Backbone:
């Protein structure tokens, strides 16, 4: 059995708020290809003749099934925002304490630098920066990271997840568009779908978080034409990216629920192939909800929802079908 036992998940999850609040501040191994054992190290891989790098965090302990036998690790690939790097989103998301507790591996790929080494970003489609202008194949890079990590560490290929912040969120959408057969689910924080040719080969579960006052990736940002199957009528006021994905996943309805004073949860159901969930943060700006304030555009009520914790819970409910 590859899945984590549900009762084990509930027990550990009860501790997760405290764990996420304690940001992991450990230093990672500075040398490239610094090892595949427990801890955080930097690695390099050749992709289309380019040397690309990523950070990798490996927990000390392997996950176990309900019989107590060790099983392969789930893998979360976490993509940084434009102008940042893997270390930025590592600290921003505070995911490593949770990874150690729940025993999953985290990879933080580094985007391709622009001119003069500045402006690391992703080729997520029609937006934005040097990677898109230069037609960098970042989907191939993410695929290569999956393969490279799996060659050195036992990874459960049914539990590979891709998430990202801002331009990294756009790239997570792009990966789901072009490599749906490899991805169990994606998570998007303050991002939008900019791949106007998106046509995934299968439904992909999506969880997203977005502030209505985001000045960098607007709540209504999109480069989409709607698919043939329409989104549920009640989703008309939600972001175009979410409406698009709910249509792709064959969702027939959506339920809105007020979670806190500033946070509304939109849950799509029934869906033919995969769940879609959106957390809307009223007057929320450009930040990782409940995470470190690095990358934020200003003060906002983001602590009312913890994106990292909520996203991981969503991921673990969705193995690859």
Residues:
């Amino acid at each position: 059995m590859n899945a984590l036992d549900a009762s084990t998940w509930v027990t550990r999850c009860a501790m997760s708020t405290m764990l996420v609040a304690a940001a992991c501040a450990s230093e990672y191994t500075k040398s490239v290809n610094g090892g595949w054992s427990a801890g955080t190290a930097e690695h390099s891989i050749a992709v289309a003749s380019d040397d690309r790098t990523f950070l990798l965090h490996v927990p000390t302990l392997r996950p176990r099934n309900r019989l107590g036998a060790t099983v392969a690790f789930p893998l979360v690939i976490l993509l940084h925002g434009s102008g940042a790097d893997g270390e930025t989103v590592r600290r921003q998301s505070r995911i490593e304490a949770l990874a150690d507790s729940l025993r999953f591996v985290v990879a933080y790929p580094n985007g391709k630098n622009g001119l003069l080494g500045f402006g690391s970003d992703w080729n997520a489609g029609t937006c934005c920066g040097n990677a898109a202008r230069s037609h960098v194949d970042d989907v191939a890079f993410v695929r290569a990271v999956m393969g490279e990590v799996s060659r050195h560490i036992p990874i459960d290929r049914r539990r590979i997840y891709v998430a990202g912040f801002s331009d990294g969120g756009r790239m997570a959408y792009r990966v789901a568009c072009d490599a749906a057969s490899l991805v169990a689910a994606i998570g998007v924080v303050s991002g939008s779908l900019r791949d106007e040719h998106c046509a995934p080969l299968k439904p992909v579960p999506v969880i997203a978080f977005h502030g209505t006052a985001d000045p960098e990736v607007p709540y209504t940002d999109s480069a989409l034409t709607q698919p043939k199957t329409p989104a549920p009528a009640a989703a008309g006021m939600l972001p175009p990216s979410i409406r698009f994905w709910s249509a792709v996943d064959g969702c027939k309805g959506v339920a809105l629920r007020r979670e806190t004073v500033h946070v509304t949860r939109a849950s799509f159901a029934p869906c033919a192939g995969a769940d879609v969930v959106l957390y809307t943060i009223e007057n929320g700006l450009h930040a990782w909800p409940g995470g470190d304030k690095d990358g934020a555009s200003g003060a906002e009520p983001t602590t009312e929802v913890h994106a990292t914790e909520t996203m991981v819970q969503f991921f673990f409910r969705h193995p690859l079908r």
